[in-house]
Amino acid sequence: MPNTPPKPMQKTAHKTQQSALFKRLDTLLVQSRDLWQVKAFDCMTLPWAAQFPRLAERVWSIADEDIDDLDREQSTLIAALLPSLTEDLIEAGLEWELSLLDITALLCGEPDRALMSDRELSHFSAGIKGRKWEQINAFAGQITRCDSDVLEWCAGKGHLGRLIAKAHNRSVVSLEWQQSLCEAGTTFAEQWHLPQTFICADAFAAKQSQLKVNQQVVALHACGDLHVELLRLASSAGTRNIALSPCCYHLIRAKEYEALSVGARNSQLNLSRHDLQLPLQQSTIAGSKQQQLRHKEIAWRLGFDSLQREVRGCEQYLPIPSVKQSQFSGDFSAFCLWAAQSKSILLPTELNFEYFEQLGLKRQRLTRRIDLVAHLFRALLEHWLLLDRVCFLEEQGYRVSLSKFCSERVTPRNSFIQAEKQANNEFIL
Q1: In this predicted structure, what is the pLDDT of residue 93?
Q2: 266 DSSP assignment
Q3: Could you give the 3-state DSSP secondary structure of residue 95?
Q4: What pLDDT digit, counting tens, does each position of 28-71 carry?
Q5: How far apart are CA 141 and CA 406, in angstroms?
Q6: What sign does the CA torsion over 141, 142, 145, 148 have?
Q7: Residue 401 β-bridge partners
């Protein structure tokens, strides 16, 4: 994987528990990549059916209406598919450490800590959606309290920063590149007389980062390269304490994932942006109407794809732009006409749209099963990505913990990395 991270420090070059676990995860992900490193929309059959016939038989035995329930809980999904996969491995004489599939069980969460009274908190939660406010409150309750100032990375309106400023009684600098959000946050901070200052700056510009040694930097759901850049800049600056929850691993500038730690740089895995979306493919909060709409969208996209393949004489998936929800209130033919226009495809005057709509539904049944098997490994891949960040920080001389800051009910992106810079004579065990 192409990358240019800082070189690891000699005093942390020996193997840690986290790096040893990373190696085990890496081995399983490399062994199983035929099952999860797949683009379902490109497939016309189960791409791994010949290698894993019992698994293929098992997924086709699952009723369409049961797939979402199986997919919602990782433990339920593992229980449903693991026996068939195990049989295939035994038959092939392969040994995989499949117990690692339930990797999330290793992440413990701290009990919720009350930062302030409900009456005080009500002032700070005004205008913030309930689940988002739960995330902010839970994250703020987990960070280490210390005597240094706080830098809030990619702050938005500074909701997290002002809660820390009030509840911890600490000075906060909130870094945000959108001027309008800085102005809104400043207005609120002044209204409540909070020690919070906003700086409008680009997080990707090292000279504007505001990072320094005697500081605690916090980042709640900084996406992709934004939180990776934070790790690189903060470790380079020697920032004392880092607390972050990563999100949206696929939002990167490079075409492929650029590994951080020594172990990840030595991995055989090459991860595309598409691969990096796998950990995000779990919805614990979507309602039945949202799920039905999503299924309809996929079926229509696949139906149009079958149509365009025939019209263009090209057996290649053709992505189309994002679709407004209102477009699904019409019929499939209108959707196809819109999609064809968006891709400058001239359609024949007479087309059997119903035929292609049925093809789309048939392909959707296939892609849902391909994705279901890939989802066995989504938590594993996310933990691999998290440990890449953890091991990188260890290599830079930090003592690092990895836990959960809230339940999956609040957000599936609930991983919490907290790192403290060690003195030169301290070793990471």
Answers
A1: 97
A2: T
A3: coil
A4: 999 999 999 999 999 999 999 999 999 999 999 999 999 999 99
A5: 10
A6: negative
A7: 418
What is the helix (H) or strand (E) element at residue 151, kind and residue range?
A: strand 149-152
Give the type of residue at 87.
E
Q: Is residue 154 very low, low, confident or very high in pLDDT (cuts 50, 70, 90)?
A: very high
| Residue at token pair 């980062």 | 209
Q: For the chain, give the percent of residues with pLDDT over 70.
A: 89
- d(C-alpha 351, C-alpha 333), whole Å: 9
Q: Inter-axis angle of helices 159-167 and 130-142, to 10 degrees? A: 50
Instruction: Quickly tell me which residue has 């998936």 as its tokens.
Output: 317
**What integer pLDDT is reported at residue 268 of this predicted model?**
97
Is the pLDDT at 110 greater than 80? The verdict is no
Q: What is the distance, to the nearest Å, from the Cα of residue 351 to the centroid of all Cα atoms in its chain?
A: 40
Alpha carbons 360 and 383: distance in angstroms, whole number: 34
User: What are 376's two structure tokens?
Assistant: 């066995």
- Helix, strand or coil, per DSSP, at residue 81: helix
CA dist., res. 314 & res. 377, Å (int): 32
Query: What is the residue whose two structure tokens read 């709509």?
Result: 357
Taking the C-alpha atoms of residue 16 and residue 4, their distance in angstroms, rounded to an integer, is 22
- pLDDT score of 427 more than 90: no
Sign of the dihedral through C-alpha 122, 124, 129, 131 = negative
From start to end of 340-408, where are the E strands? 398-404
